[in-house]
Amino acid sequence: MMIGIDIGGTKIAAISLSSEGNNLKTISTFVPKNYDQFLRELITIVEQLRKKTGIKEKGIGISLAGNINPNGSIKRAINLPWLTCKPLKSDIKKLLHQEHIYIANDANCFTASEAYDGAAAGSNVVFGVILGTGVGGGLSINNRLITGINSLSGEWGHIPFPQWKNTILPKIKCTCGEYGCIETFLSGRGLQKIYESLSGNLIDVPQIIEEYSSGEIIAKSALDTYHQRLAEALAMVVKLFDPDIIVLGGGLSQINSIYNNVPKKIQVLLAIDNLNTQIVKAKHGPASGVRGAARLIQTN
Ligand SMILES: [Zn+2]
Predict the structure, then answer these.
(1) How many Å lie between the centroid of ligand 1 and the Cα of residue 176?
(2) Could you tell me the distance, in angstroms and rounded to a whole number, from the CA of residue 51 to the centre of ligand 1?
(3) Which of 95, 259, 273, 291 is most buried, with most CB under 10 Å away?
(4) Cα of 273 to ligand 1 centre, how many Å?
(5) What is the C-alpha separation between 154 and 204, in angstroms, rounded?
(6) What would the mean pLDDT of 102-107 be, rounded to a whole number?
(7) Could you tell me where in the chain the CATH 3.30.420.40 domains are found?
(8) Distance, CA 27 to ligand 1 centroid (Å)?
(9) Distance 78 CA to ligand 1 centre (A)
(10) Is there a contact between 171 and 179 (Cβ–Cβ < 8 Å)?
């Protein structure tokens, strides 16, 4: 049995997962207000899962939005500032008497989950992409998550687009403090800004998609631009890793037009006759964070 814990901005989700991928027990609770309460909450969750399943886990995996140092301390927690700089891994090890603790950001957990038994199961080189409020990536090779010696592998969302300064698109400051990052164009806010630059109106993403589906011309133009930018960003991934498959997750991965348009555009950008890399929608959806956290025990 493995335990996966997904730390969100307001909620904590936890599961105990069998090696076969069966969800044995789920727990959901709110994120406490400070680090001491947070550690106490994690102890309670793990003890409940141990009691319900009657066995001690092989390891515990934790997913959160942010940057994790190679030693398991938190470099930056995007939604929970009080977690920044805390030695989370060593504290949990001591408190839960568990040597096998793995902490990874949400994009890496997503990738681990989809590579293991999701949309990319059976593929060797997998690049996972989250297109949501933030934009992130993760790399899995032969079911091993490649986090890198600096824990920076897959930080694709914060690579600036080449020539971004010359684009007619709006210049948006990224959550990392820089300008021109892939995230600023491909996040939900990025799509909203693209639409706003064409229409003068700031509307939410579902409304843009609805207008696109009904053939509205500005929404079509906004989505065409979004497809092109996504293709440019993924063409870089293909040039770096040439993955067998790219799995898209997060709210914007639900835009079905991506799957028809983006592969053709990548093919043109790479000047190749046929793009062998598949681009597919995630299988596990919102559960990828917590499932992927549990899979960290098998994929590290
Ligand atoms: Zn950035």
Answers:
(1) 4
(2) 42
(3) 291
(4) 33
(5) 28
(6) 93
(7) 2-110+287-299, 121-282
(8) 33
(9) 12
(10) yes
Separation of alpha carbons 104 and 3, rounded Å? 14
Q: Is 134 exposed, middle or buried (0-12, 13-18, 19+ CB in 10 A)?
A: buried
pLDDT of 169 reads: 65
Type of residue at 164: W
**CA-based R_g, the chain, Å:** 20
> How large a percentage of the chain has pLDDT more than 90?
76
**Alpha carbons 31 and 28: distance in angstroms, whole number:** 10
Under a CB-based contact definition with an 8 Å cutoff, are residues 31 and 11 in contact? yes
What is the pLDDT at residue 164? 64
Ligand 1 centroid – CA 180 distance (Å): 7
Identify whether the C-beta of residue 35 lies closer than 8 Å to the C-beta of residue 92.
Answer: no
Ligand 1 centroid – CA 173 distance (Å): 8
Mean pLDDT of 235-260: 95
State the distance from the centre of ligand 1 to the C-alpha of 158, rounded, in angstroms: 4
pLDDT in tens, 192-216: 999 999 999 999 999 999 999 999 9
Is-contact 263 291, C-beta < 8 A? no
Confidence class for position 37, pLDDT limits 50, 70, 90: very high
Pick the CATH number of 2-110+287-299 from 3.40.980.10, 3.60.10.10, 3.40.710.10, 3.30.420.40: 3.30.420.40
User: How many C-beta neighbours within 10 Å does residue 189 have?
Assistant: 17
What SS3 state is found at 125? strand
* β-bridge partners, 278: 245
**Does ipTM come in above 0.95?**
yes
Question: What CATH class has 121-282?
Answer: alpha beta
Q: How far apart are CA 112 and CA 79, in angstroms?
A: 22
